Amino acid sequence: MFQYLVKRLLYSIPIIIGITVLTFGVMYFTPGKPIDTMTDFNPQITSEAKERLVKLYGLDKPVHVQYWNWLKRVAVFDFGKSFKDGRPASEKIIERLPATILLNVLSIILMLVIAVPVGIYSAVRKYSLFDRVLTVVVFVCFSAPVFWVALMLMIVFGLWLGWFPISGLTSFDFSELSFFGKTWDLASHLVLPVIVSTLGSFAVLSRYIRSGMLDVLKQDYIKTAYSKGLSERQVIFNHALKNALLPLITIIGLSIPGLIGGSFIIETVFSYPGMGRLGFDAIMARDYPVIMGIGVISAFLTLLGNIIADVLYAVADPRIRYR
Amino acid sequence: MNILEIKNLSVEYKTSSSIVGAVKNVSFNVKKGETFVIVGRSGSGKSTVASAIMDLTGIDGGKIKSGSIFYRGKDLLKMTFDEKRVLKGSKISMIFQDPQSYLNPVIKVGKQIAESFTIHNSQASNDEIRKRVDEALKKVKLDDTERIFNSYPHQLSGGQKQRVLIAMAIMNNPEFLIADEPTTGLDASIQKQILDLINELKNTLGLTLIMITHNMRIARRYSDTMAVMHNGEIVEIGNTEEIFKNPKHEYTKLLINV
Question: Phi first, then psi: what are they for A66, rounded to 5°?
């Protein structure tokens, strides 16, 4: 197992480098350059000044030299300074992390809490009224575009009913509130984004669990369990559940990068101060260091998530042993 | 004395396109202490009869259309699920054809055997449970009890897994055992060992045995009474030796002469 882990970690290094090459390439060949946003709307800028800026950021060099310079700095954990405001890219990313993690941890928990029982129930009571209604609900949740759902919720619960604030993470007077007031403020800001980011994944996951459970309930060892005299409840909880939930490990492992990467759409629509919006703004401004920083972190976390999922799989399923 | 009486049993299966009558109007009696063998090719409905007795028809998507299954004079098909639950695994047990797939892959063997006991004896202490499991393992000639107890199914051989399933089935000293093709999927050399073990347990525990097989030699060697099934119907039934000596139905002759 330990050997396997070391091997997997070593394999990850070329993969991460490959991902950064791709990201850097795509970014470089995308129309529009970083200095455009700084200079295009400034009528007083001279072409010499423009040249100087290009030189200053090293953008005059060929793409492979730029990439090499970037890689050398990253090797010592220096992600460079944001082109936009000169602050270190790593600092900008770390500052946005907690908000995104908070949002995504809450929605993953909510997703599991709803999707697991719902998926199991609709598998056990297949084609019941509940299962049929749920199929429609899931279909709607899955098909409705996230940005549209977000806007509808903002209109209904934010504007018409006025129950929840519709943007940001805190109110402007946040710093003056008591501890209880702060918690309340934070919670009310989180309600709509959490609901929106849970809906789609809940729909997918509950279907996953339903089909996994249906598959398990057809297995021969379920017959053995019934022939021992177990009740339906005991069969489901003692024999079927663990087998049906094994694939969940992979799904949760794969959602770890989303924890950090955030959702571009949701965070942008809700003006939520997280990684997703940072990434969106960075891409719009061609802020190379920030884009690459987010890229590297996301790639690293995706691979880490995969490895963790594989390890947990081996823990949960005795048939799997890695070498 | 008849321990089991099946009267006019009909079972249907719904496939995607049609309804298949898997068992049509089957009746037979099983006497206490005998070995009753149902022979027939695959698809003849012999396993469906076993499933119906064990109340497993619904899991395969089947439905019992009509008939009755009397166990000690009480109709199993008129009982509630919970009433049948008391009998299943304690008075009536079953072992299956493919030991690999009939054991839960993610639960340790010891726990799976123990469950057969605890489900019917909720007050049992841990020591008592462990003692019973070890006894059952010894009865099926798995003497390496400690290792077997802590193994997962995939760590055991096919023969060991079938012994584990048998241990599970005899955990509560049942009076009635159904063995559905108990040697399919096992090596030829292991097959005889398993059949001899079942036969030996039948004698020492005083079991009544229903065995389902497609193998005429097994049927002749181990059974007292035999029923031949073809296309969901029993075409011939009677004393095994008499049938072999003087088969009446064409299909029986065909099976014997193969």
Answer: -60, -45
